[in-house]
């Protein structure tokens, strides 16, 4: 045992002895870098960026001396090495053998490019060694001009009519209140600053397409970690609110509402008739409270994914609500990495409140849809008497107890012993760069269970795949057999 200990000690001493502190002038020695290009992706112009890290390694046994560091341009990127931000002062930076040092780089506010598309910005960070070797790392960012609405910290911005186009993205800083009509063109992008929200008090027409969807998301375009964009973290902005005392029409086509506190909150004080919300091809994903809330509101939701909310993905209270070929999937925080600011509540994916004693009563139906998640029960129908509930459930895949209602039939229920995957990926594997994917797995129990009559008005799924078979799949995605 003593011999083994002495052998380990001698090996350790030998390794320490291999590390030299004398600076080498050997021209064959080089530095190594954690990357050859440090990329910032897209940076909104007139704003700064987060800070990225570059590691410099001396993988040689001998020490090396960095006697000069400089940028070609130096007008955008700011560099901090060993606590020093003035690069001209870095004239004697020793890096011992088998040692490393960190370099921190950020973008200062980029000037406007006067362009509708992102403009590439590059600079070279050079290192000259005392052995007369020069090496460089490319710094790269894309500057994107935006149209600003409001100012940070000003509280509220009021507009009568609002028409948002796709020419440039919009950056919304605070609470935007639109008194009359809101129109959003296909391909428009709305970046929402922290805490920002939109209150639409009039009609809304948001008409995207599969090729040019409307995107509403937070304004952090950088990454939490190497494989985790800020877009994957919920709560980066507040929400989109539809609020009215009158009958309104809300049209949403291919609108992606991502990573806020609340996706879409539709509320009215009407009793009869009610405002009408139509959603087709939309995606409401990754919110720290609710996905879609319907209160005193009629709704037709088709070919739509509503997924990953810490509380209810869908909450229905008052009105006629029909969900056809929609996917409701509750896997918020279902991953091994902690990136969310809140934990998943013990809440079902869908909650239907049919307990109200006043008008409007609740009548919510699901056809050819999926309601599931990682908790045991994902559908709650709060009704005094099941046998009198007026809503229908036909051709669905449901993770809940068997529905004993007069208009519930031809559904497939998730059983405890089921092992088949419903989706391509319901778990965020961040190390493998695999995000949630709620398209159907090849062995999904939701394949071929839909009602063919209910599918007739919706022959194409959210991805443009035909539902021409005898039995359509449940959910907004048809499996491409």
| Strand line-up of the largest beta sheet | 10-13-16-19-24-27-30-33-36-39-41
Low confidence ranges: 9-17
Question: Terminal Cα separation, in Å?
Answer: 64 Å
- Quaternary organisation of the protein chains: single chain
- Strand elements, count: 43
Query: Helical stretch count?
Result: 2
Query: Structural class, from secondary structure content?
Result: mainly beta
Structure commentary:
With 481 residues, the chain is mainly β. It has two domains: 20-144, Immunoglobulin-like; 147-455. Helices cover 4% and strands 41% of the residues. It contains two helices and 43 strands. The strands form seven sheets. Strands 10-13-16-19-24-27-30-33-36-39-41 form an eleven-stranded parallel beta sheet, with no helix packed on it. A ten-stranded parallel beta sheet has the order 12-15-18-23-26-29-32-35-38-40, with no helix packed on it. The chain has a nine-stranded parallel beta sheet with strand order 11-14-17-22-25-28-31-34-37, with no helix packed on it. A hairpin with a 4-residue loop joins strand 8 (119-129) and strand 9 (134-144).
